[in-house]
Amino acid sequence: QGAVQMRIKSSQTSGDRLSQSKSMVLQESDLPQKPISRHRRNQSQHNVAVAGAAVFEPVELKGEHLNVAKISDSGKKQRKNWTSMWTVLTLDQLLFNKDRQQESAQKPGSKTDVVQLCGAVVEWTTEKSSRKNVFQITTNTGSEYLLQVESNSTANKWYDAIRKAVNSSTKADGGFPLRRSNSTEYLPRHSSLSGYGSASPNPKQRNPVHRRSINMFGGSKLKHSTSDSADKNGVKNRLKKFITRRPSMKTLQEKGLIKDRVFGCHLLTLCEREGTTVPKFVQTCLDAVNKRGLEVDGIYRVSGNLATIQKLRFVVDQEEDLDLDHSQWEDIHVVTGALKMFFRELPEPLFPFRFFQPFVEAIKIKESKHKIQAVKKLIQELPRPNQDTMKLLFSHLHRVLAFSRKNLMSTQGIGIVFGPTLMWPELDAGNMAVNMVYQNQIVEFILIESREIFNLDRK
């Protein structure tokens, strides 16, 4: 027995200490009869919290560096960050400080984190961290701390001392029983009693207390565990009824509650819906520019106010009638910006995807007449809405060039603006910069040769 006393004072016999703590699950009569020592390490033989147990003498640990992670603050989860903290245990508090405190534990520094142990729960855990020798402290306000140290014996020493302080302070405060939310079932003070003292108990046996169940106020807001499933089922049933009863898209469109979009609609679909071969919005915008924008400096090059352009887009998508002569659209750059946005948002560009590479090959032709014929033939193979919209647009841009001295626009400038707007590859597997060069060249060439390509002189 003298050897036992020496082992208790040593921090190197972790295996013996662990085997000693495992004996706590035995009945008191089965425990080996050893002399009761006042040393804090021997108190673990008598600190299982059961009815009728004696009041334990609290143990104070004056300080040691432990790894600490605060994973919950009053029930609100926090990111787990391990920090080495100078830890001091008093009669009813656990004090954490980043710097070693030389003064009395009763006078912690202003940066000390104080954990009230009255009503707390202490248990080993293997789920919250992959580190070894980790135990958790859950306060009566729902805050959760993880404590860890590499030494098994040191971890057991702190675990036992903290649990005794919890027992002592709780019993002195009148028991402070913990109760499950919405339940009359009282929880044992140590939920891990079945695996008590084990550094890696079976997680299914521990039945840890949820932080919502530890709120010291026991408010009615937390009593919802039994009614949660019923409430969720009710919400699901109401959502199901709403979804099954809601009208179809076709019904809403027929009633005029939802209108078909203009922006983002396929060109063929839009023209078929409107009964035209050129979208009405494109025709309206080109008429407005022909009327009051041909001499404006930087027409199509200068950007309009994006917020106003988006407002115009919303009006076009929601209303049938559009008056571009209204004062809110007086900036012609808003009109040209909306027109360019319309072409950019087409699901398939004005130059369809399957024609991208043929146009690139045609623009590479050296001889001018052959190049014109090749481009003209490709355009004639386009769907009718693409042909007519392209003819109207390039006819308008050719007119813009006639006022180049005032609007300072050139074929090259228009090609740079409309190249990426009117055509792009379906899968940009090649070099984007090379594709952009071809896009600009194709638009610029069609613009220069628009009279021949579109037969603009023939009425």
TrEMBL record:
Record key words, sorted: Cytoplasm, GTPase activation, Membrane
Keyword rRNA-binding belongs to the record: no
One Pfam family from the record: PH
Domain Rho-GAP as annotated: residue spans: 265-454
Membrane topology term: Peripheral membrane protein
Residues of the PH domain: 70-167
Originating species: Seriola lalandi dorsalis
Protein name as it appears in the record: Rho GTPase-activating protein 15
